[in-house]
Design goal:
heterodimer, A: mainly alpha, 3-stranded antiparallel β-sheet, B: 13 helices, 10 strands, disordered C terminus
């Protein structure tokens, strides 16, 4: 299965979660994502996602001067980003539960499957 | 540490960055620096981590991935443009498309969110053909309103003759329905050209507004209005508005009298068989158009009263002092009597049995004295002309 497509859908929430755990700069976030099991994540995708989340107000950023080389740009989560993370976390929980059930990996959870569409769409618009 | 270490930015990193930067040349400086900020440090760390720039692949693909992930529009035509000429990030056309598509999908999502909404919307969608017919009718009425003299609306627009109005109405309705069926106009959905969609949207909005305007001109609207405002003029016959002078269904705005010899007369006072003044209704008649100019209609005076039954009524192009109280003879540019539509009319005679010669030689004799004297001579002051 081509996981890059799957990755696209969850990169936002994954990046938010990583930054929520601890502020980080671009390459640091890439490294933590990979350490977390998302080996296939592309550097540029992560950097772009960080920029976009910053532009949308979910992340804040600050520059840390470095003695050894170029300045590092750190990202931290904002209250809006934390809200977004919460919503996307819920959406992911019901989505993954539903897909797992469909794939027979778990006992069917009917309510989860029925409620699938709502958190997913609302998570974006809210 | 110091500048020496700064210079240790590896040439391959610097070269890679330069290629990425070049690939983003179509962005604004702000966007590009926002995108590239901190990237140097990240790349340096990657290398320090034991990686190499080579494993990042093609810098152009890297740049594309970066901008896509950042939510910026993919580079498309920039390479076709002249170097140095920066394409605006989003053209207005794309913004319009996004606005239209976005509104549509937001609306559809909203409708889909509630079962009642969905049902109601289903009914509305089913009624679309009715709207197509209605807007065709509105278009015909609108054309009628802006081209011809003012008149109250009839279901079928009158264009002076019977045929033109009907043809126009049929044409407008057929055109509107074809428009609705997307036979004569590209679809309102996304693949259609932006211009086509905007024009169609504009036409529909215009039709709604025109409907509001047109509906106020319909006699039934006046019935409601007059019922609420008893002081407003108003009597209605089965064919429409009949207050004031009406000739064959058309409002009379002025009267030009000629004597039996065919010469135009000025200052003719008209009364009907009961001695009631034959007065035009100024509130209606002032809305006539003379070649696009709106004259104000004034009246003759009978003492303090305004005599709306003395013809021809004077007019003035004074910018339309549409207040009835203003219509007095005291303006700097006084009103004038308009030219009669016909310079002279053929003489007329009474068909008397003893008239051997039916020519125009003796029209005065052929007129009985009783006719020359207007009946209501005792009604010098017809208190109210309405």
């Amino acid at each position: 299965m081509d996981t890059t497509q799957l990755l696209k859908g969850v990169l936002d929430v994954a990046v938010l979660a990583v930054v929520d755990a601890e502020d980080g700069y671009g390459y640091d976030v890439v490294r933590r994502l990979r350490a977390g099991g998302l080996e296939g994540v592309g550097d540029a995708s992560v950097y772009g996602t960080l920029r976009r989340l910053y532009a949308s107000g979910a992340l804040t950023s600050y520059v840390v001067p470095s003695d050894e080389g170029p300045h590092r740009k750190y990202y931290g989560i904002t209250p809006a980003g934390r809200t977004l993370l919460g919503e996307q976390r819920d959406a992911w929980a019901s989505f993954s539960a539903a897909v797992s059930a469909l794939l027979g990996l778990r006992e069917p959870a009917r309510t989860d499957a029925l409620e699938l569409t709502q958190p997913l769409t609302q998570g974006v618009t809210r | 540490m110091n500048d020496t270490t700064r210079l240790e930015v590896r040439p391959d990193v610097a070269e890679f960055l330069e290629k990425v930067r070049a690939r983003l040349s179509d962005l604004t400086d702000e966007e590009r620096e926002e995108l590239l900020g901190g990237l140097e440090a990240d790349l340096m760390e990657l290398v320090a981590d034991g990686g190499s720039v080579a494993e990042l692949g093609d810098p152009r693909a890297y740049a594309d991935e970066l901008r896509t992930a950042a939510g910026l529009e993919a580079r498309t035509q920039a390479r076709l443009g002249l170097p140095g000429v920066r394409r605006p990030r989003r053209s207005s056309r794309e913004l319009v498309v996004e606005l239209l598509d976005g509104s549509r999908s937001r609306w559809e999502r909203w409708v889909a969110a509630g079962p009642t909404r969905a049902q109601v919307w289903g009914v509305v969608v089913a009624l679309r053909p009715a709207w197509w017919v209605l807007r065709g009718w509105v278009a015909a009425q609108w054309i009628d309103m802006v081209t011809g003299p003012w008149e109250y609306l009839t279901l079928i627009p009158r264009f002076g003759d019977d045929v033109t109005g009907k043809l126009l109405l049929v044409g407008a309705v057929v055109g509107s329905v074809l428009l609705g069926l997307r036979r004569s106009w590209p679809a309102s959905h996304s693949p259609a050209s932006v211009l086509a969609r905007v024009v169609l949207l504009g036409l529909n909005v215009f039709a709604v507004l025109a409907l509001l305007v047109v509906s106020t001109q319909f006699p039934s609207a006046r019935v409601v209005h007059d019922a609420a405002h008893p002081y407003a003029m108003g009597r209605f016959g089965p064919t429409g508005y009949t207050s004031g002078l009406v000739n064959d269904g058309t409002v009379v705005r002025n009267v030009f009298a000629y004597d039996a010899e065919g010469n135009p007369l000025e200052g003719v006072q008209l009364y009907d068989q009961s001695g009631e003044p034959l007065a035009i209704e100024p509130e209606i008649a002032y809305r006539m158009r003379y070649g696009g100019r709106l004259p104000t209609i004034y009246s003759w005076s009978r003492g303090e009263e305004k005599a709306w039954n003395v013809y021809p009524l004077p007019i003035a192009y004074d910018g339309g002092a549409w207040h009835r109280g203003d219509r007095v003879w005291t303006r700097d540019e006084p009103p004038f009597l308009p030219q009669p539509p016909l310079v002279a009319v053929p003489p007329a005679v009474l068909p008397l049995p003893e008239a051997d010669e039916p020519g125009a030689e003796e029209p005065q004799e052929s007129r009985p004295e009783g006719r020359a004297e207007p009946g209501p001579s005792q009604q010098e002051e017809p208190g109210n002309d309405r």
